[in-house]
Write a structure and sequence with these properties.
Shape: elongated
Protein name: KIF-binding protein
Family: Belongs to the KIF-binding protein family.
Pfam families: KBP_C
Number of helices: 17
Distance between the termini: 99 Å
Structural class: mainly alpha
Subcellular location: Cytoplasm, Cytoskeleton
Largest sheet: none
Strand content: under 5%
Radius of gyration: 28 Å
Keywords: Coiled coil, Cytoplasm, Cytoskeleton
Length: 446
Amino acid sequence: MTEYFSTEEKTYQERIKRFELAYTHTMYYLAQVYKNLGQNERAATYCHSTLQRQLKLNQYSPMEWALNAATLSQYYITKGRYMEGRHCLSAATVISGLAGEVPSEAAAQESETECERREQLRQKRAEIARCWIKYCLNLLQDTKKLLEDNIGELDNDRQEELKRARRLEEEEEEKGRKSALLFGSEDTFDLIASLEEKVSCLFPLDFAEARAVFLVGQNYVTQAKEYFQMDGYVTDHIEILQDHSSLFRALAFFEEDLERRCKMHKRRVDMLEPVCIDLNAQYYLMIRRQLMFELAETYNEMMDQKLTLANRQDDSQSLDSHTIKKFNHLCSSSAKYFQMFIDSLRSPEGKVPEHLEEEVLRPALVARFRVARLYSKLMCSTPSAQLDNINKALEHYKYVVQYCESHPEAGSTVETELELSREMVGLLPLKINRLKARMAMNNITD
């Protein structure tokens, strides 16, 4: 106390600075306390204030501050607060630039200090890039949820309704900015604001707006992959690829041209398929399963879109051989990856598990259901091939029904699929018998 009330200016100023720093540390510790108590909103508020005070007092390490701001953005994103999330990320990018240029490889080889600095700068900037990817991806996905109808397509009425409400939304954004606790100083505020202007924080309501968000995300995918390469960062690299694939999928929702939409899904296949094939199942089984399932679903989406496109252009009864071949290729590819997923659940001896673990229960049963439907959709040139496919479909439908009968708790995870599987288990034997009778009448044998 004596030191604090000293008349010496230098001592007084130092004491004030210590009090300010102590107050900032207190806010930081409160953020940790509230986080551990599960009070995430209060934790985020104290974390935001801590970061703002660190800038104001000029007491921070640029890269550490930037990474903390980028991490905070992820909380705001999950709450749909994209204006705050964008502000945190823009500030993180600008402040990380204050740490200086990344030392060259040559400089890193000559100095251990420069080598360590090069590694830290590249890694942390790549991590900030990954946070930007999540921002763009979540913004597109949240918009999709707002705009899709009950079959997952764009609801034009809803789209027009949201466009009419856009002006009010923009006014609210401007009010929010004025009342928000913004980061920055005289040196950095304009840079942060300039970066914010490059990506919207409003829901993109048409393809052009969605594409602008997509391109920002894709740019950060490129940046993140420069550091997180397959050689040395397998898991991180594949997660970035999966996010890139998800960006394409989200953008495809806004594309009305089915041919172009199919090309976007083809890009997803091209980036994921080689990785899935080459990945060592012994070490990366869970990741490989994720890729199998996504590839199966992607091929399935392409198949549905190709058939819709073909039916628009011509009568479904007169599809040309090229269209049928393309459709069957997509159908078979989807079934192949769903089957690979199912087979990955087998024991080393090749046995189907009697009990499915909770984390794979729904995907395993959905995969069975989807394979059954895909076998039913294959366009066959001979009755014997059609009969073979229907029998395979019936086998998978039966598995879903029988598993849920022997494990009643599983039924609630696949209610729709179970209901349809029961229906098909009743209908397909009749179809099989009719097909066999027709084959017998025509003296057709296998």
